[in-house]
Amino acid sequence: MNLATRQRMTLEEYLDYDDRTDIRYELVDGVLVEMGAESTLNTQIAMFLLLHFAGLGVPAYRLANKHKIAVTSRQATAREPDLIVHSEESAAAISGQSQALLSVDMPAPTLVVEVVSPGEAGTDNYDRDYIEKRAEYAARSIPEYGIADPARAVVLVLTLNGQSYQEQKFIGDRQITSSAFSSLTLTAAQILTAGKV
Known about the structure:
Layout: H1 11-16, E1 25-28, E2 31-34, H2 40-55, E3 63-64, E4 68-70, E5 78-79, E6 83-85, H3 88-94, E7 101-102, E8 111-115, H4 124-139, E9 144-149, E10 154-161, E11 164-170, H5 188-192
Parallel strand pairs: 4-7, 8-9
Antiparallel strand pairs: 1-2, 3-6, 4-5, 6-8, 9-10, 10-11
């Protein structure tokens, strides 16, 4: 859902925008686009993963949600992943910033994770996470992009290979493999249920 605005916003205007609601927006071609409310399961999955990475020894300053990543595409100017695992370099670059934004000239994080909201192929939710962000995050040279899709009961781990991602698909009790986190021992089912199985 687009927000009616009289003129296109700059990235700086977007970062300063506050409509005094809890509505989340991404900036798409200069226009605010409402992200919609997250389901309880989606937020639980993101929190479960954040806690799991902390348990693997990733320091708290490298774990983030609500951080934005500037991208350069026709679809968007800035994205807000459900979870970011910063690299040491991206954590240092964003530290102390007045806005939690990794600009295009800052180093890439190690991993971004998106938890997909329900929607069929061709819908905004599906296209945003499976197509648009895949291209945008690859263009930003983010080494790994994780997609957790509870509605389709699948977890995808996309590993950057050159300028595009190589995809691995995980379902059920299959253990996730990650080139960035070799000590990861979660299964797809554990992720998709936020640790309930």
